Prior knowledge:
The complex is a heterodimer. Chain A is mostly helical. Chain A has one domain (2-194). Chain A is 80% helix and 0% strand. In chain A, helix 1 (2-23) packs parallel to helix 6 (127-142), helix 3 runs parallel beside helix 8 (172-195) and helix 5 packs antiparallel against helix 6. The relative contact order of chain A is 0.14. The mean pLDDT of chain A is 86. A two-stranded antiparallel ribbon of chain B has the order 1-2. Residues 1-13 of chain B have low confidence and may be disordered. Chains A and B meet through helix 5, helix 6, helix 7 and helix 8 of A and helix 5, helix 6, helix 7 and helix 8 of B.
Amino acid sequence: MMAFAITELLGVVVLLTAFEMLAQSFVRPMINTVALQSIALAAIMLILGVVKHSYDLILLSALTVAVRGIAIPEVMKKDIKRSGIWVYREVETRVPALVIIGLLLSILGYVIYQDIAETLHMGAEGALPFILFLLGFLLIIAKKNALAQMTGYIVEENALLYAGISFSHMPLILEAGVFLDLLALVLAGVILAAEKDYGVLELEELVG
Amino acid sequence: MGMITVTSISGVGTIDLTTLVYTLLALPTIAAAISILPNPRAREVASLISSATCLALSIALFHSVLTCTLQSGWIYVDLPAAVIVFLIQAIYFLSVLYSIYFVNEIWKERPLFLRRRHYYALINLFAMSMTFAAVSRNLGLMWVGLEATTIVSALLIVLERSKASVEAAWRYIIVASAGLGVALLSLVMFHAFSGTVDWTRAEMSAKAATLVAVLALVGFGTKVGIFPMHTWLPDAHGTAPPAVSAMLSATLLPVALLAYLRVFEVAVAAGALKVVYITCFAGAVTALVAAILAVPQRIVKRLFAYSSMDVMGIAMTGVGLSAISPVALKATLLLLIIHAFSKSALFFTGGNVITGLKTHEIEDVKALLSRTKLTGLSMLLSALAVTGAPPFASFIAELVIVAVSLSVPYLTALLLSAILLSFLAVNYHVTRMCFGGKGESVSLSALSELVPALACLTSLAISLVVWIALAGGVLP
């Protein structure tokens, strides 16, 4: 029982890291936070893996630390060094509004999830990943900085990984494929982020 | 469904079909590896050989799948998958051909974002990842393949390094991946409810299937360009190099639609009736919105991008209607075939306008029909084909879909107005470009004129075969 209490506590840590990211205007701490989130998630997997004697989960936990905890944050931090001021900071800070929207979204998400769970006879364990998923979306929508949007996407993927282990976890080969994709996507993303312009873009080619 | 497991084509020697599918995946990968080598001829030749061989193999695969379904390990190829694999290889071949012209042409003018070797490597990998997604029986692997296409194609879009193309690629990568995130959520739920991600073996309750299918509609629908998640589509398809636009429009959208079709079939088998209506209306509304947005377009390739969205909307309705009558699915596949060839022809002619006339504005293009040898004619005919005008078989396909849609209240009205409006919008702009005004003749290389003409002819030839088959009573 102790193990499950710890995983639940770690789940709360995962959720709080998402809020920390909403409140953060600087990119480097955002990247560190998403790395922390991935490691907390890996810890949950490790505990569940040991309790359930599942080697798949333990392996998945190691993969998570390697790819989402270390490799992806390193790739993103390299890009911060490469480019100018826009990469360091959000253009405008709207922290109070964002945190409040995040809270409302979490409550809404919980209510919606309960509703769905009741109809489909699912357990309550999916609520946290579901809320995290919504917060990942909020990060993508609310942040203007390209790298910050990328971290939002990683939060979304983390939520899916979390959902996967909360219900019945997907085959390992599949999760490995998802990891590879995520790594490649972040690589491609930072290449594009370095090319991207910010501010008011009046591109007549993209109108209508 | 009576499915027979068959692993070899009888008759023509014995080619193992599983090996054939693996070859379809291996050849582009090898070509991509050769492309990275410094020799410029080698990469063009390797890509051409790979794509031509893949095209021939995919026709063989299509032929054998007509009578039975290929099931072996993680591979599952039935008729829809075989059609889409064939389309991928055909457009891959045409795109490589056109790339040889286009990339060399714009390379003369300015430095590009990608080196030419990376461009060819990515084109090959793009084709490979689409094939991988199309032949997987496992929805998760399909997802992995689709997400891989996002990565390679986003990099391809930025080839010209204009502000617009970088912005478009960024929007594409963020919107499409966020959308595919929802698709992955639907797969996690799929797995939670049925204990598998193999759609051929999955069973779940109607309520669970409704949730999974609606999430999949949003998720895979983003990649198909379903309203309101379509925003990336006109940007990406409009600013990408023509060969990449052709592959995006003609083949990537159908691959994403195939992924949705798999989930949809599970939902229908589970008795989730609501999903059928939601799919039909999501498709029809998409088609109508695309048709309305196509009217005020000023940029050549953006107009064609909206036309793709329109056709995918109709195809999505076709997928929805396949639950009511299986003939709707066949009509959808036919529509996708004609659309693939004609739309790639349109994007190639759009590329010719950019290189030959140095403009992308519809307004600046006049009398294309008399100023070019084949480009104007290919554009005119292909525009008719994608909007479902006879003699093209897309007419039959849309007719069948509309006929089946009569059984759903209000759907026919939406669908008909979308088809009519997009016909008027696209052809109005295209006739403006092909006729009217005067201008000096445009000098284009033979290759650039021949590739769109070839695509256009193929779509005419397929239409002819379909008409003959219909008249002979071969098709239902």
